[in-house]
């Protein structure tokens, strides 16, 4: 997904019909299992953005203020934890255990 809404876009509203979700989604094509971009419309908020299919992203300054950050695996979550930051799963927002 794009990182910033276009200038003048109101928070919580679809900023541009061309602004689409770029999160990868598992699927199939003629060659078998594959991944493709979600493609759903993106809506921007004051703290980040999300798509019509439920993918979301929170801007770094808001994650930092709330004391958490995305961790792609348990090792990264452990390193964040040592720094006093909660490591969160990128796909669903739950903390790593």
Structure description:
16% of the residues lie in helices and 29% in strands. The chain has helices at 60-66, 74-82; strands at 24-29, 32-37, 42-44, 48-51, 56-58, 68-70, 86-88. It has a three-stranded antiparallel sheet with strand order 3-4-5. A two-stranded antiparallel sheet has the order 1-2. β1 (24-29) and β2 form a beta hairpin. It is flat. The relative contact order is 0.14.
Radius of gyration over all CA atoms, rounded: 15 Å
Pattern of helices and strands: EEEEEHEHE
State the major sheet: 3 strands, antiparallel
Any idea what the shape is? flat
Mean pLDDT: 85
Counting helices, strands and paired strands, the structural category is: alpha+beta
Find the count of extended strands (DSSP E, 2+ residues). Answer: 7
Describe the secondary-structure layout.
Layout: E1 24-29, E2 32-37, E3 42-44, E4 48-51, E5 56-58, H1 60-66, E6 68-70, H2 74-82, E7 86-88
Parallel strand pairs: 6-7
Antiparallel strand pairs: 1-2, 3-4, 4-5
Which tags fit this structure?
97 residues, alpha+beta, 3-stranded antiparallel beta sheet, two-stranded antiparallel ribbon, flat, disordered N terminus
Short recap of the structure:
The chain has two helices and seven strands, in the order E-E-E-E-E-H-E-H-E.
């Amino acid at each position: 997904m794009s990182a910033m809404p276009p200038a003048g876009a109101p928070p919580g509203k679809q900023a541009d019909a061309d602004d689409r979700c770029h999160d990868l989604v598992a699927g199939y094509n003629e060659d078998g299992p594959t991944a493709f971009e979600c493609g759903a419309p993106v809506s921007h908020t004051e703290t980040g953005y999300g798509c019509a299919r439920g993918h979301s992203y929170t801007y770094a300054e808001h994650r930092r203020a709330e004391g958490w950050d995305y961790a792609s695996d348990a090792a990264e979550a452990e390193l964040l934890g040592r720094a006093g930051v909660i490591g969160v799963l990128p796909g669903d927002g739950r903390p790593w255990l």
